Amino acid sequence: MPDTRQTPIKVGIGTPLSRVDGVDKVTGQALYAAEYVVPGMLHGVIVSGRIAKGRIAVIDEAAARAVPGVAEVLTHRNRPHVAWRDSAHKDELSIPGDPFVALRDDRILFSGQPVALVLADSFEAARFAASLLDVTYEEEPHNVDFDLSLAEKTLPLWKRKSFHAPKSHGDADTAYAEADLRHEGEYRLATEHHNPMEMHASTVHWHGDGTITVYDKCQGAQGVRDFIASSFGFRSKDVRVVNAYVGGAFGSGLRPQYQVQLAVLAAKHLQRSVRVVMTRQQMFTHVHRPQAIYSIKLGAERTGKLTSMIHDATTSTSRFENNLEDVVTWGMINYACLNMRGEYTVAPRDTYTSSDMRAPGAATGMTLFEIAMDELAYKAKVDPLEFRLLNYSDEDAMNRQPFTSKALREAYREGAAAFGWQGRPIEPRQMRDGREMIGWGVATGIWDAQFSKTSARATLLADGRLEVASATADIGTGTYTVMTLVAADTLGIAPERITSRLGDSDLPTAPVEGGSWGAASTGAAVQLACRSVAERLLKAAAKVEGQPLAAASSIDDLVFADGRMALRADPGRSVAIIDAMQAAGLDRIEVEETAATGLRGLVSQARKSRKTHSAVFAEVRVDEELGQIRVTRIVSAIAAGRIINPKTSRSQILGGVVMGIGMALHEETLADLRLGRWMNHNYAEYHIPAHADIHDIEVIFVDEPDPEVTPLGVKGLGEIGIISVAGAIANAIFHATGQRHRSLPITLDKLVA
Amino acid sequence: MIRFDYARPADVAEALRDGADAQAAYLAGGTNLVDLLKENVARPTRVVDITRLPLSGIAEIEGGGLRLGALATNTRTAYDERVQADYPLLSSAILAGATAQLRNAATNGGNINQRTRCYYFYDVGTPCNKRSPGQGCAAIGGVTRIHAILGASHQCIATHPSDMAVGLAALEAQVRVAGPGGERVIPFGDYHRLPGDEPWRDTTLQPGELVTAIDLPPETFPTHYTYLKLRDRLSYAFALVSVAVALRLEAGRIAEARIALGGVAHKPWRRPEAEALLRGQEPARDLFGAAADALLSGAKGQGANDFKLPLARKAILRALEQAAAGTPQSQTDKRIA
């Protein structure tokens, strides 16, 4: 990879550029939600409930209120008015049901529920007083046991907008009964919590004139603005939400989290500025990846060609909202099979509502399905990679639609070559090094390539500096850098002359950052805005003496590079951007544009399937006696259309792979079923991989030109990196040991028991 | 976190005066105490900051052995040349623990006094006899993945989390303590205790007593040793099972043997009869199996930690093999030898 500290002359789409916000982050200049200091601000400390279900009987506040510096103890009894209609508390990505409203009443819906907010003029006083609050409960029977909750599993009538019901084809049951080869298995995934590095936090600046500014850890500033307005009775224009920097989220910031509710409630109640920061332990009291069970039946001809697939999955949700994810559809879309049937249900537990965590549904469903496919490959005595190629589908097999592009075959080929897959022994337990058994596994990933209507503004100043702005978020994904690169590409301005602004609800409209649509959508909006600037520059260039660009009828006849615009046909004829501005007497050019799906795009969306794909290869080394698994190599070959920034893109895939290793071996939130409470609620006992667990990871982006999928041909990378990594690892463990593990994570007890 | 007084004594005598109150807590590296304060688990009325005390030296003891100051950091101790040459087991055990950042802050006295990592002990929303005597033990019948298989009581099934302590137990170190009644020396095997009916007491330290040093005895185990730690990830995780082994081989036979287990009990677990089985014998897998069985005699799972029984047996076998072969487990290359 080239050294990007020395910026090349023409930087644009495809240039591996270091994060433009990197220096601010590593030098502490980048402020996060909990770091804004507002004069006169109160500190709020959340008191978390002890029981899983019931009512608050008594709250003894006397000792807490007696602590010097305590301003208020906010509970359901003295909170200010909040909208009574559930619909007022819906957010951009709401889940059908009754959204959780902090301090709404005395009902306890889940363990760790916030029951009070103690406010004081110092954090220390608030924390001390919070420890003195004495809450008595009336407990009711609860259930957090997923297996018990399966008795109540259901497919609710009201579904999330993002949910796609599985479509059945042919007669899967008969085909399964008549198949030469049959495989049946039950696969499981543990509950996981998102655990971004930055805890959820909100700092509310109460301006005193009816307006507030809220610095919030979230993935969508405008979504939180609208939520605050409708929940707490503000006019939308009186609320500004800022999330300029977000220390990771993985989906936990898609919906407004309860700390922002508490902070705004308290600010409104006391008419003062307030900061509320969750503790790491409180990060385990809200959103999480649902626990899952997935029963799979596969039938095939003797050759290994699939003839039937029957999917039946259930994931956990809460009792107050129904979180539906696309779990079983991925395998049905991905493989050619004439007979397929899919069932999907959710099962309610007395926990907070599960919701989107990196690659929601696919990280669960496709990962587990790829373990089942591996099992059938062994039954067919076909190499697992060959087996996938044998069942390759050039169309979306469930929706029976062509893809805008699908370079999965190339991903398999390039990934296998880089990994050295050829010559892999087909039987398990064939490779050993000392005490360690070695195994190689493969799995396929698939995710939606989405696009969402987004606006951006470009402002060019007379001195040639450019600002591009959109209300999108950068949750560590590299959006600042993507915006800079697209602007540099379009206008030929060096990145250091460009400022990207985002994470502010006052900026041009953008959707919440998630679902892997950020780069495709924001990138398109920035490009549109910059093209409008270019058009105005071309007009301005007419004022330049000698009219060197007179031959250009549109900006497509121009090349923008090095701060100049030149005729494509005759590069010797060019005008510097600042000369054009000066000649036309312009201080600035400012335009706002909106990238939306046009008519042609809508037709394409109706007729074609748009997906990102990956081929993941894993090597594991297993000390069977001691149950030690080391993932010594991963190759992740990604087909995701056009790559704007190879450097941050690679980082994003590396992060996804590491998270996938965690899913395979480490991540599991453990519940005490009697207490209805997550117990390993801290970084020491909830395990994600440490550096020592991570070895070689190679990322390959295969060539996949796709002008149809989104305006820039970008498919997005936020989710694809994690999907099926754990499947490849589970498959490699089988290849190493002959032990098939169908329940993730594969912790050492499962090997030695 | 509750409010507390803060004292920063300059010498041991002053520290003992400041720490005489039963509700006082000594603060050194703070890597465990501060966490416990933040979680409302530790609720001292006075915090006695002992970091200014002159207890950070590492010095040879007249007549043999090495004195590790209570305030010497784990990092300094692990990389001390004399520790590395003569007591590499201790160095290895320390480096198996926590992370480099934590070891840089953590002290020797603090390490052996760290509290259990039992989920319930750490969560004031649940009952715990260790935290609040008489509340009951929620861990029993609950999430027991990390809990004890040996020496537990009906009041507490917590384990001691220290790696360093397991090495010190095998080396038969001694803990030097200053207290209101003067100085005393506690053999390491008597320092930590089993929970019994008083699970809130982790050690035999008396109120107001302060650890001033840990003495390593003259006998060194420079070659035939290992510290094997099995855990849920390869760094920054507490042991599910760990094994410290120190052997002295003479003419192909085991002349002296020490085995201590971590992650399985309220204290580093040793059994003299297991070690006696090895003495005078030639190293062999069957012999190691017999020693493992003796060491694990009476072991009982709590349900979710039943796997620790076979895991501990296999770990003991592997550790004895590593030590006998003179191929100790590396703490940098995480591959298990």
- What average pLDDT do the residues of chain A reach? 96
Work out the helicity level of chain B: 25-40%
Q: Which spans of chain A have pLDDT < 50 for at least 5 consecutive residues?
A: 1-8
Q: What does the radius of gyration of chain B come to?
A: 19 Å
Task: Indicate the CATH architecture of one domain in chain B.
Answer: 2-Layer Sandwich
What sort of overall outline of chain B do the alpha carbons produce when their principal axes are compared?
A: globular
Number of beta-strand segments of chain A: 33
Q: Based on Cα principal axes, name the global outline of chain A.
A: globular
Count of separate DSSP helical elements of chain A = 18
H/E order of the elements of chain B? EHEHEEEHHHHHHEEHEEEEHHH
Major sheet strand order of chain A: 3-5-1-12-9-10-11
Named at the architecture level, the CATH assignment of one domain in chain A is: 2-Layer Sandwich
> Largest sheet of chain A, if any?
7 strands, mixed
Mean of all residue-level pLDDT scores of chain B: 97
InterPro entries (chain B): CO_DH_flav_C, CO_DH_flav_C_dom_sf, Diverse_Substr_Oxidored, FAD-bd_PCMH, FAD-bd_PCMH-like_sf, FAD-bd_PCMH_sub1, FAD-bd_PCMH_sub2, Mopterin_DH_FAD-bd
Keywords (chain B): FAD, Flavoprotein
Protein name (chain B): FAD binding domain-containing protein
Organism (chain B): Rubellimicrobium aerolatum
Defining traits:
heterodimer; A: 753 residues; alpha+beta; Aldehyde Oxidoreductase, domain 4; seven-stranded mixed β-sheet; five-stranded mixed β-sheet; 18 helices; disordered N terminus; B: 337 residues; Enolase-like, domain 1; five-stranded antiparallel β-sheet; three-stranded parallel β-sheet; 12 helices; 11 strands; globular
Write the layout of secondary structure elements.
The complex is a heterodimer of chains A (about 750) and B (about 325).
Chain A: H1 22-26, E1 42-48, E2 54-60, H2 62-65, E3 70-74, E4 107-108, E5 114-120, H3 123-132, E6 134-139, H4 146-149, H5 172-177, E7 181-189, E8 192-193, E9 201-206, E10 212-216, H6 221-232, E11 239-242, H7 258-270, E12 274-277, E13 288-289, E14 292-300, E15 306-318, H8 329-334, E16 339-349, H9 362-380, H10 384-390, E17 395-396, E18 401-402, H11 408-419, E19 431-433, E20 436-448, E21 454-461, E22 466-469, H12 479-491, E23 498-501, H13 518-541, E24 558-561, E25 564-567, E26 574-576, H14 577-583, E27 588-595, H15 599-607, E28 611-623, E29 628-639, H16 646-665, E30 671-672, E31 677-678, E32 696-701, H17 725-737, E33 743-744, H18 748-752
Helix pairs in contact in A: 9-17, 12-13, 13-14, 16-17
Chain B: E1 5-7, H1 12-18, E2 24-27, H2 33-38, E3 46-49, E4 58-60, E5 66-69, H3 74-78, H4 81-86, H5 88-95, H6 100-105, H7 108-112, H8 164-171, E6 174-179, E7 182-187, H9 188-191, E8 210-216, E9 224-230, E10 241-250, E11 253-262, H10 272-278, H11 285-295, H12 308-325
